Amino acid sequence: EVQLVESGGGLVQPGGSLRLSCATSGFRFSVMSWVRQAPGKGLEWVSTINPFTGQRLYADPVQGRFTISTDNVKKILYLQMNSLKLEDTAVYFCVNGGRYSNYSDRGQGTQVTVSS
Length: 116
Hints:
The chain has strands at residues 3-7, 10-12, 18-25, 32-37, 43-49, 56-58, 66-71, 76-81, 90-96, 110-114.
């Protein structure tokens, strides 16, 4: 059974940091992504990593502030988010797949709220 379980979300002030985690099981740990969904909007791609080559891709709005990484032994995906902005408020999902996958294989999401 494919499982992706996100955690680490919460309420943070602008400029703050959060670290999201995604525990995975039931599939071959390969190219993984984070996507997010802001209130009233569709899914937005955030970042992708190839755990074996180390290649990382970032959407322009998060470039330089977010860092994607993995623990290949434990099959955990991470997203370190620094210098958070109000517009980063969203539900964040980890996805089994790359930037152009259909995002259907994803977890239940974790809420990130940036507010003063």
